[in-house]
Specification:
Blueprint lengths: L2 E6 L10 H9 L2 E4 L16 E4 L2 E2 L2 E2 L3 H14 L2 E6 L9 H10 L3 E5 L4 H8 L13 E5 L21 E5 L5 H10 L7 E6 L7 E6 L3 H4 L7 E5 L6 H4 L2 H4 L1
Parallel strand pairs: 1-6, 1-7, 2-3, 2-6, 8-9
Antiparallel strand pairs: 4-5, 9-12, 10-11, 10-12
The structure holds S-adenosyl-L-homocysteine.
The site of S-adenosyl-L-homocysteine has 25 residues, from α4, β10 and β12.
């Protein structure tokens, strides 16, 4: 009987892989992986392990999700240990739930191996804590893929008036609309905001600005990138550590 592991690969720094993920990667007969999963992880696989790339970029899928589901299923019919490796955590905008449901419907055994999500770890490597006593008592992780101008949006923009930290994933291409929308709902134009590109890796780039100037400052920054909006961004002045180490 085969087993599929829906596995989080972490945000990029290879050492942020969990021990459980590492174990199944070394045992895998096939690894089905995303663009966001650090390719160095594949070097950990045993000899003869097969690799299948089903990459996705910023919500644009190179393979439609139903085809990815089927690729996983077909591999489960052929192999004993199937690792489906996904960037960050499989259940944070990773569509791991859809893959798990598909496997369940087809009677395939699977396990979820959570990963360190970029939503928290990428800000951390930029010296930005997503909560901080007296500054932010909660944080939200929001899709930035959906245009803020969309009618009947599922995103509760009106709730974003508070000082909770907001982390937008998949939002770089919508940054102009997101920053404008946040100012429209009443956030001040000098409200702190950061864009972090390729976080936790040697190519990490952090741009700090305000809602008014972040678009201009972040121009040309490469993906993957996430957006952090909140007063916690200012803590980077004291907490920046990663760039100092490189
Ligand atoms: N499941 C993943 C998120 C998938 S959505 C997780 O838990 O991290 C993909 C988005 O994640 C990207 O568009 C980007 O916003 C963000 N992202 C992933 N890795 C990143 C990195 N190393 N640096 C910055 N953003 C990253």
């Amino acid at each position: 009987m085969s087993r599929v592991y829906l596995t989080g690969a972490g945000p990029g720094d290879i050492e942020l892989l969990t021990m459980k993920a590492h174990r199944v990667i070394t045992e895998a007969d096939v690894i089905i992986y995303d663009r966001l999963a650090n390719p160095e992880i594949l070097d950990m696989a045993k000899d003869g392990c097969e690799f299948v790339y089903v990459g996705k970029e910023d919500g644009r899928h190179t393979l439609p999700q139903d085809e990815i589901n089927d690729v996983i299923y077909q591999n489960a019919l052929k192999h004993k240990v199937v690792v489906r490796l996904k960037g960050g955590d499989p259940f944070v905008f990773g569509r791991g739930g859809e893959e798990g449901a598909y496997l369940h419907q087809h009677g395939v055994n699977y396990e979820i191996i959570p990963g360190i999500t970029s939503a928290i770890s990428v800000p951390a490597y930029a010296g930005i804590p997503v909560t901080h006593r007296g500054v932010a008592v909660s944080f939200r992780v929001v899709t930035g893929h959906e245009s803020p101008n969309k009618k009947e949006s599922q995103i509760p923009w009106e709730n974003f008036k508070t000082d909770d930290t907001i982390i937008f994933l998949m939002g770089l291409h919508n940054l102009p609309k997101i920053s404008t929308k946040l100012m429209e709902i009443g956030k001040p134009s000098d409200y702190p905001c950061a864009v972090i590109s390729r976080g936790t890796t040697k190519e990490q780039k952090v741009v700090v600005g305000t809602l008014a100037d972040i678009v201009q400052k972040a121009e040309g920054i490469p993906t993957p990138a996430l957006i952090v909006v909140g007063k916690v961004v200012s803590l980077r002045d004291q907490l920046q550590w990663f760039e100092n180490k490189l």
